[in-house]
Design brief:
The structure is a single chain. This protein has 648 residues and is mainly α. It has one domain (1-648). Helices cover 73% and strands 2% of the residues. The chain contains 26 helices and 2 strands. It has helices at 13-37, 44-57, 63-73, 75-84, 88-92, 101-119, 122-129, 135-146, 150-170, 201-210, 212-237, 242-248, 253-265, 267-283, 285-303, 317-339, 342-370, 377-396, 403-434, 438-467, 483-494, 502-524, 533-541, 544-566, 571-606, 622-641; strands at 181-188, 191-198. A hairpin with a 2-residue loop joins strand 1 (181-188) and strand 2. Helix 11 (212-237) packs across helix 13.
Length: 648
Amino acid sequence: MTPTSALPPQLTLRAVVLAIVLAMILAAANTYLGLFAGMTIASAIPAAVVSMAVLRLFGGGGILENNIVQTGASAGSSIASGVIFTIPALVILGYWQDFQYSWVLAIAGLGGILGVLFSVPLRRALIVEQKLAFPEGQAAAEVLKAGENPSQGIRILGVAALGGAFAKLAAGSGLKLIPDTAASAGFFGKYLGFVGMNLSPALLAVGYIVGLNVGIVALAGAMISWNIAIPYYVANVLPSNVELAQAAAGLPAEDLAGLIWSKQIRYLGVGAMLVGGVWALISLRHSLVSGVRSGLAAARASAAGQVIEHTEQDLPMKSVLIGILLFTLPLWALYETIVGSLGVSLPMTLIMIVTGFLFCSVSAYMAGLVGSSNNPVSGITIATILFSAVVLLMLMGRDSEIGPVAAIMIGAVVCCAACIAGDNLQDLKCGYIVGATPWRQQVMLGIGAVSSALVMAPVLNLLAQAYGIGVPTAEHPNPLLAPQATLMASVSKGLFGGQLPWGMIAIGALIGVGIIVVDEILKARGSTFRTPVLAVAVGIYLPIELMTPIFLGGLIGFIAERSLRKAGCAEADLERRGRKGLLFAAGMITGEALMGIVIAVPIVTSGSADVLALPASMHFGEWLGLIVLALLGWMMYRTALKSDTPTA
């Protein structure tokens, strides 16, 4: 056993500072991406590459120190996910006019810390005993172990980021050289047809990261909405819906499709997500119990004086329980401030604790199976908000104006905690592989979560002023969709005196059941292709133009891997080249997202959405956007095929 004092440095000051800076940057970038596309990406690999390059400038940076940096930095994407999936709902509901700094900090920071604490008992069960894959954690460990040429990695990230940034600058919110979307719609008899593709390189990169399987099922979900449900609704149901038919009268085909989707069809996705969230809990019930038992057993062994290897040293269970109590108290005070009733705020707090631990367990397990980028936290949050809303409905009554807000507040904390829990287990898997000390990583992740929470409100306010969030207005007719937050607002408000298309939700639930049956059949047959219900549900809920480039990105990754296998590439080299493709994809996402934030500054300061727009004579059509997207896709493909560049 290696004495702790003989270990290489881990939690150093320079590692902590670098991790905080990277966490804030990645939180800002993922905030834009999540509000725009409804997805965020795990950032452990880019953070590991940047860490190796930066710490080398300061005289080294061993594998364990670099691991600490990527652990703290990766919290940025997790906190961003937890915040943008829920907190914008408070603005959409009209409870807030803007994003209040102290409240956002409290929700995100405390939720993130609770996520770290809730996930401590799960490490041994999911990583050591069940040996779940945790794909991003394994990939980050391989990058750290191999000590891949960090200068080469930085070049790949830099080139890709420039490409993504240029595409964003040239698009509709910037110079307007190219449009944001290429779409076409028309009638075929009485049926409405629609095809579309967003021209965002970030979405193409997201598809490369999540893979072809997820790309296929997400696009299939979108086709259920846009190529089956909408045409059927327009032809057979719309004439009987007098109010909606009047609103649709005279609209162009493309606008008509969007109206039907926003008012009716997207709620099919709500039903499918609700079923998916419940199914996730049912599927993971045994793992939840196993995780708690393993964590308590390890605590008892430590208390009995048994010597524990440094790679098995988690935060002490007693400290975890005390921490949960201490960090829950300010959340109870926050809930009491909102509802002004102990009889309501206390149940809210208890619901938050119970659902928080359960759903942190689900999130961690799902991250182990499919990775953090595919982790269905939105479905988990919907289940939390729905359950919370039902309880609050009984306590506060159907006509309560604050009821939907209270449900969102519970869901926001749970969502932040669940996102961090999945990320925490990814990082701990990486640390388990490279021989890190778990409690040091858990401390670093808590620091990274709080650091990321510090920048969330300013970034959200900047994006809201520049682009609008969720609700179209005269000033922002095409806002950032914030699909999950819009959904959370609809579900919570619908249970408190609002109106929801329950028929559509019920049909969506039946679709979800059918998808689960198909997935179980594929699982029984040992198929490598699966149909995860929450991935299909997200496709049903989002516009099809967002799903198309995601599918194409997954296809590029599949073709690149197949080409390498046909060329006789060894498995180790295949993984190494695949990581280069992932770095390029991560760079495109980061570049586009950061440029979106940069563009927002002159828009907000000038008060004009067209402040950067070139004259109309210089605006090109969709063809130029397609060319730019194809070029970046080709570069991503070629990067994945390249062999290592010799180094001196």
